[in-house]
Amino acid sequence: MVLLEYLKKIMEKLVKCPNCHQDFDVSIDTKVVPKGNSNYLWIFDNGHGGIIDGVYQTAGKRSPLWPDGEILYEGEFNRGIVNRLMKLCTDAGIECVNLVDTQEDMPLSERTDKANDIYRKQQDKDGKPCIYVSVHANGFSDESANGWSVYTSEGETKSDAIASVLLDKSTAEFPDEKMRGKKEKDFYVLRKTVMPAILSENFFMTNSENCHKYLLSEDGRDRIAKIHFEMVQEIEKLRLV
């Protein structure tokens, strides 16, 4: 019952931007993939650690303490997005795994080893391709830095098609925000995974407007989860990888 109420809340919803006061539609197309007919196994990785007994598990990786007393812990935000994605994909019949289903901060090498082990077991089982998606929020020393971006490993790979779809969904959902585009970087989790992999940087936790509008806001988190889910749906439908 709780899941159904949650899905109804997130899938049929208009939200009002607290800054520009425009209404944005965060409704999600709930077309369901028949159970067992998912074309991919999606591996979602919420970066960094969560909060255990009130203690954040990762040094740094947080926003400043804002004048209103709010602070964003990136690992908590990342888990908020992945938890939404897991519910949306599971309900739609899309096979998915929460790679770090714990509040602990799993080392990068353990994350990639675990993801690669899932991939190999899937290949032995039925050969279904896997896609790795790492979810983050960005940060910088200059508070003016803002916007959204997605990363792939260096060079032309299958990951580029996935990142391009997610960028398109983000551009459509956030037309008034800065799109920093699709970038290449030698991030460990992108370099060490043996399957197509992307890493999304969902606005800047060190920018007050980005942080309050999207990262601390439940409505903002719904919209960020929405673009990732729409990406999953399009990749599933078109089999782009």
Concise description?
This protein is an alpha/beta fold.
Cα-based radius of gyration, to the nearest Å: 17 Å
**How many DSSP-defined strands?**
10
What is the CATH fold-level name? Aminopeptidase
The CATH architecture category equals 3-Layer(aba) Sandwich
Number of helices: 7
| Chain-averaged pLDDT | 90
Determine the strand fraction and express it as a percent band.
Answer: 15-25%
> In one word, what is the shape?
globular
Q: Please give the domain count.
A: 1
CATH superfamily: Zn-dependent exopeptidases
H/E topology pattern: HEEEEEHEHEEHEHEHH
Helix content: 25-40%
Poorly predicted segments:
1-12, 17-22
Largest sheet: 6 strands, mixed
CATH class: Alpha Beta
Which features characterize this protein?
Aminopeptidase, two-stranded antiparallel sheet, alpha/beta, 7 helices, 241 residues, disordered N terminus
